[in-house]
Amino acid sequence: MGRDWAAVFGVADTDHLFEHFQSERYRGREYRYLPDARHGVERGTAILGDAVVRGFPSIPRTLVLDPGIPEYFDGPVAVEEKLNGYNVRVADVNAGHWEEFGPLAFTRSGHVCRYTTETVRDQCPLDDFFADHPDLQVCAEVVGPENPYTTHDYDEVESVAVRVFDLRDRETGDPLPVAERRDLCEAYGFEQVRSFGVHDPDAAVDAVGDAIDELDEQGREGVVLTAADGRRRLKYTTSAIHRSDLEHAFALPFDYGRDFLFSRVIREVFQAVERDERDEVVRERARNLGESILLPAVETVRAVDRGEPVGDEHVVRGDPEVLDRLLDQFRDRGLELDVRADRRDGDERVVEFVKLARATRDKTEFYLEGGTIDE
Ligand code: ATP
Ligand code: MG
Questions:
Q1: pLDDT (tens digit, 9 = 90+) per residue, 154-202?
Q2: Ligand 1 pocket by C-beta < 6 Å: which residues?
Q3: Which residues pair with 163 in a beta bridge?
Q4: In this predicted structure, what is the pLDDT of residue 367?
Q5: How close is the Cα of 158 to the center of ligand 2, in Å?
Q6: Residue 81 falls in which region: left (phi positive, over 0), alpha (psi -120 to 50) or beta
Q7: CA 252 to CA 35: how far, in whole Å?
Q8: Which end of the chain has the lower number of beta carbons within 10 A, N or C?
């Protein structure tokens, strides 16, 4: 122990900060993590022994490209694709006997995930990288149809893939400049997010507009803009992802519906206005938006009516024991799982499971049986 935590986190009152940390175990060893941002310390910050792995900061969003981009940046900005998967930070914690585990993968909320750890080790040459850069963390999006947290499909990903979008100091969270980060990823053979070039803020408005048209057409999520020094970031997303977020949310209306609805509608409103769309184009947008809300919800209520289980469906592939740990991890956190298939494919085990959506199931049953609602 014996670290000056006030200096590490830049806060005076470390007792209050530490009250918000929770503890958890990884392979029998205890670590702490911060489930929500507190006192300026990012959500997902983890402490293992004396070592700190800083959380990944939240990225602000602009609702209009012009003047959103030139207002926010005063120098060149890198435009990169924003992928829709889950955030992972990989760090090689070389303190307090944690070094024996090698590089570990942390999810957004700061949990060490055994499955993700195995996945990033399989796909990224981590040993070479951490031998040269032990103080960095690798920030990446895990994407693809076979993963336990998200479900967005990418044509180029058959199962699961890791795409790096940041390299930061493990302890301070300071990012590398964009060009240096992209060069290092290239040098070590990390796959990274697609770049749409570096532009002056005014020119970036059009560059992002074009990128968004292309990504929207392909049903992809959007872009993240980053100042050349890596410090300031901004995100902007496609209409396609607003609809697919709503489809996902309203497939489980009583679990996710409310949290998703207002923000996506507002994004659509400002996008329609900035694009100065004609009446019939706005009407088309409205129809698509309505369909992405109502159709999946109707389907789910019908499924509950037929007595079928409803929830988030996932497929995972990998080492049989690692998948056991993954399912245990979900059950330990209170999720109810419905395992639909569990088979071998060569050396690998493939598990299809549903994270049951209890609120949607229970409320839907209640209303279908004539339960009343006070509104
Ligand atoms: P928060 O609001 O806390 O950032 P969120 O889940 O709502 O959380 P998103 O809207 O998905 O955040 O946007 C930020 C996330 O986008 C990052 O945490 C990261 O996981 C993901 N991401 C995907 N591609 C990129 C990229 N190219 N650059 C930065 N982040 C990216
Ligand atoms: Mg995301």
A1: 999 999 999 999 999 999 999 999 999 999 999 999 999 999 999 999 9
A2: 56, 58-59, 80-83, 87, 141, 165, 193, 224, 235
A3: 141
A4: 98
A5: 19
A6: beta
A7: 24
A8: C
By most ligand atoms within 8 Å of CB, the mutation choice from 42, 54, 82 for ligand 1 is 82
- The owner of tokens 């049989």 is 320
CA distances 326 to 9, 287, 318, Å, are 31, 40, 11
Q: pLDDT band for 95, please (50, 70, 90 cuts).
A: confident
Q: What angle do CA 49, 55, 60 make, to 5 degrees?
A: 170
Residue pair 106/170 in contact by the 8 Å Cβ criterion? no
Whether 59 contacts 43, CB under 8 Å: no
CA pair distance 354, 148, nearest whole angstrom: 10
Task: Express as a percent the part of the chain with pLDDT over 90.
Answer: 94
State the Cα–Cα distance between residues 46 and 21, nearest whole angstrom.
8
Is this structure's pTM higher than 0.90? yes
